Amino acid sequence: MSKQFGDLIKQARLKEDLSLRDLAGLCTGISFSYINKLEKGLYEPSRQVVLELAKALGLSPDKVLITAGYAADRIMEAQTNIYQPAGAMAQIPVLGVIRMGQSLYAEENLIGYEWIPEREIQGGEFFFFQVKGDAMEPQIPEGSRVLIRKQEDIKSGEMGLVFPGEGEAVLRKVIYGEDYLVLQSLNPKYPLLVCKAGQIGIIGRAKKVVFDL
Questions:
Q1: Which of 13, 36, 140, 158 could join 154 via S-S bond, C-beta 3.0 to 4.6 A?
Q2: CATH of the domain at 29
Q3: Can you give the residue ranges of the HTH cro/C1-type domain (predicted)?
């Protein structure tokens, strides 16, 4: 569905004679680089992003939702009662690829934003990380957004966002040994990664997983 959605957005953008930056400027919390990746079918957009782009381009929300693989709002309203969380809400950034030596909130890392009750993010700095690949399946499928509390240390057995040496950050279960760390995937087809303690950079602790049906 992601390629069909990307083609729809690109065609509508070009029809309105908008550049990627122009379209991003009409949206709230969506970068032009992320829109470019959506048009290429590289990411599965969240429902919120789909609706934001539909609004900016003057497209039918139902049509765009269905193209992106979601049930249309009018169908959902007829089938279920939509729960609206009580209390204040906060807008949290959603990050994709995070590279060693790069600013955490660099524009190329930013995918979009998600709303979350403020009561769930008390006492710290939080962001969502969008999972790539199948290393954490079946519990955390690709495309899931994991709420991360930014902190430099976590307890043994907890799940965290880490840099395993150089390269990109990954979500893994962290187990401490005497002078080493073990990074464990939830998917059994991936082997354990054993590293010296100083080789691992911890970005934060996983608090919650969100994914779209």
A1: 158
A2: 1.10.260.40
A3: 9-64
| 138 prior amide bond cis, ω within 30 | yes
Residue 84 lies in a domain: no
CA distance 49 to 58: 14
Please list, residue by residue across 196-208, b when 16 or more beta carbons sit within 10 angstroms of its beta carbon and e when fewer do: eeeebebbbbbee
CA distance 177 to 154: 13
Counting the structural domains of the chain, the total is 2
pLDDT digits (tens, 9 = 90+) for 77-111: 434 444 444 468 888 888 887 877 777 777 777 88
Name the amino acid, one letter, at 208. K
CA atoms within 13 A on the CB side of 184: 13
Residue 38 shares a structural domain with residue 12: yes
Whether residues 98 and 191 share a domain: the answer is: yes
pLDDT in tens, 19-78: 999 998 998 778 888 898 888 888 878 888 888 899 999 988 888 888 887 765 444 443
* Gap between the Cα atoms of 202 and 125, Å rounded: 14
Q: What is the Cα–Cα distance from 28 to 31, expressed in whole angstroms?
A: 9
Domain span at 134? 89-210
Spatial contact of 170 and 161, defined as CB atoms under 8 Å apart: yes
